[in-house]
Amino acid sequence: MSWLAHFNYWAVIVVMMTGLYMAIAQSDLMRKLIGITLLQTAVFFLYISFGFVRNAQVPILTEGAERYSNPLPHVLILTAIVVGVATTALGLALVVRIRERYGSIDEAELASLADEVEDLEPHHDFDDQDEHP
């Protein structure tokens, strides 16, 4: 059996590693979100590959069918796709709000802005204040 017999698994590995690299190595929040989406898509392909049965019939009892494919992986992936689209939309909305608020979506620039804000804010020690009745 050659490596082409398992082409779908090799494609899953390539897409998964690309998504993981983008999620870890990139400092742009949009690119991180794209990397997480690629990683998620690779998991979808992997589960769909597990659910494939060669020469199998639809799981409806008919005469002459010897092998049936399990519909559960496909149903789970449909649910995961819906959840993935919703979380990606939420992530995009957060990136847009961060861009509007801080003017950047670069992780390093946002960290430096957070350090500047910490330096400007006065630090209060609430334990030393008198309690009010």
Description:
With 133 residues, this protein is mainly alpha-helical. It has helices at 7-25, 29-51, 72-102, 107-120. Helix 1 (7-25) runs antiparallel to helix 2 (29-51) and helix 2 packs antiparallel against helix 3 (72-102). The relative contact order is 0.10. The mean pLDDT is 84.
Helix content: 55-70%
Alpha-beta content class: mainly alpha
Rounded to the nearest angstrom, the distance between the terminal CA atoms is: 81 Å
**Main beta sheet, described?**
none
The structural domain count equals 1
Task: Give a brief description.
The chain has 133 residues and is mainly alpha-helical. The protein is built from four helices and no strands. The protein has a single domain (3-121), classed as Helix Hairpins, CATH 1.10.287.3510.
Sum up the structure in keywords:
elongated, 4 helices, single chain, Helix Hairpins, mainly alpha, 65% helix, 133 residues
Note the topology.
Elements: H1 7-25, H2 29-51, H3 72-102, H4 107-120
